[in-house]
């Protein structure tokens, strides 16, 4: 039996109050500054690591060479903020994923789905990689959800845990209002530049509450 440190499908996260947002932003900024490269050699190494991914980002941009250099310098200054691979994933320290359920909820343990040899090999490779990257860990659990592969847009397989019939149906659901998208767009309509930050493998950076970790266990045909 293997459990996930963070949730995979349709996670429900215990959100903090809005008053916490400034604190979170401040903490992230302080953390980045504390870990930013200090010496000239460290800054040069950071730039070397970021040149290739930024070059791809600049491929269809209208930034001048000077602007591209300024962006590279800024990104190199905060190099620890950027993850170039799964071993560099961060860990959220301001919230934990929770799976609240009514008292006396019955434990659910499903059998793994059948899979052809090729699919099973891909699943086992994914599990091994996640174990090696310290994303999941093995443990005995009375809960168990089957896994499946879902094709990404680029055709590559996405490893998913099917919580629908095990965890999700027992969750105490919470509703969170969404802001009006048109109002959001109006608020940035006069901006010259708009940046978007995509948190890499975001769910894997949110730790699960210790009391709920067992509920995220999943099973494969190999255990």
Any overview of this molecule?
The chain has helices at 21-35, 40-57, 65-77, 117-132, 181-187; strands at 2-4, 136-138, 145-151, 157-161, 218-219. The chain is of the alpha+beta class and 223 residues long.
Furnish the topology, listing elements before pairings:
Blueprint: E1 2-4, H1 21-35, H2 40-57, H3 65-77, H4 117-132, E2 136-138, E3 145-151, E4 157-161, H5 181-187, E5 218-219
Parallel strand pairs: 3-5
Antiparallel strand pairs: 1-2, 3-4
Strand order of the largest sheet: 4-3-5
Radius of gyration: 21 Å
- What value does the average pLDDT take? 82
Helical content, roughly? 25-40%
Tally of separate domains: 2
Q: Assign an overall shape.
A: globular
Question: Separation of termini?
Answer: 5 Å
Low-confidence stretches: 6-34
Q: What's the short story on this structure?
A:
This protein has a three-stranded mixed sheet, with helices on one face. Strand 3 (145-151) and strand 4 (157-161) form a beta hairpin.
List keywords for this structure.
223 residues; HIV Type 1 Reverse Transcriptase, Chain A, domain 1; two-stranded antiparallel ribbon; 5 helices
């Amino acid at each position: 039996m293997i459990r996930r440190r963070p949730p995979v499908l349709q996670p429900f996260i215990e959100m903090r109050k809005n008053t916490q947002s400034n604190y979170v932003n401040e903490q992230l900024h302080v953390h980045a500054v504390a870990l930013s490269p200090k010496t000239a050699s460290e800054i040069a190494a950071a730039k070397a690591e970021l040149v290739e991914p930024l070059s791809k980002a600049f491929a269809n941009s209208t930034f001048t060479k000077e602007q591209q250099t300024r962006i590279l310098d800024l990104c190199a200054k905060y190099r620890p903020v950027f993850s170039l691979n799964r071993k560099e994933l961060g860990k959220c320290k301001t919230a934990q994923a929770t799976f609240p359920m009514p008292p006396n909820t019955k434990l659910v343990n499903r059998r793994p789905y059948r899979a052809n040899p090729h699919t099973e090999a891909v699943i086992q490779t994914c599990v091994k990689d996640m174990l090696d990257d310290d994303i999941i860990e093995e443990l005995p659990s009375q809960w168990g959800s089957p896994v499946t592969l879902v094709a990404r847009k680029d055709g590559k397989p996405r490893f998913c845990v099917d919580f629908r019939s095990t965890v999700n149906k027992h969750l105490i659901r919470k509703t969170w209002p969404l802001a009006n998208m048109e109002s959001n767009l109006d608020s940035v309509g006069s901006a010259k530049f708009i940046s978007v930050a995509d948190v890499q493998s975001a769910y894997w950076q949110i730790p699960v509450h210790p009391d709920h970790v067992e509920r995220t266990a999943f099973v494969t045909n190999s255990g």
